[in-house]
Amino acid sequence: MNTEQLKQAAMAATPGPWFAFKLYSEPEVRTASDVFVASTPTYLVDEARYIAAANPATILALLECVDALRLQQKWSQAERDNDGSTWMERVQMCREAQSATRAALQKLEAL
Question: Is the pTM value of this prediction over 0.85?
Fold first, then answer.
């Protein structure tokens, strides 16, 4: 699956909130911070937390980081190959890449 297919899948996913939960045999009152697991076996606990963490918003934020890295790579390639772009064009590419990287990381860290 390429990044565009992954982005489309994340955008088409059921909207959140996304969380994992534990099934209890007896009714219990739980706060939102207590709600966490999917089933009784321990290995499913970790799996459920992972699935809940890999929600559409997280995937889209990670894909923005990938796009920012691609901008960084494009700028680096232009610097290395002297592709005919002017110094000012390369400076602009660098600024755009840095701005995209900063924004993508802030969005990811806010999740």
Answer: no
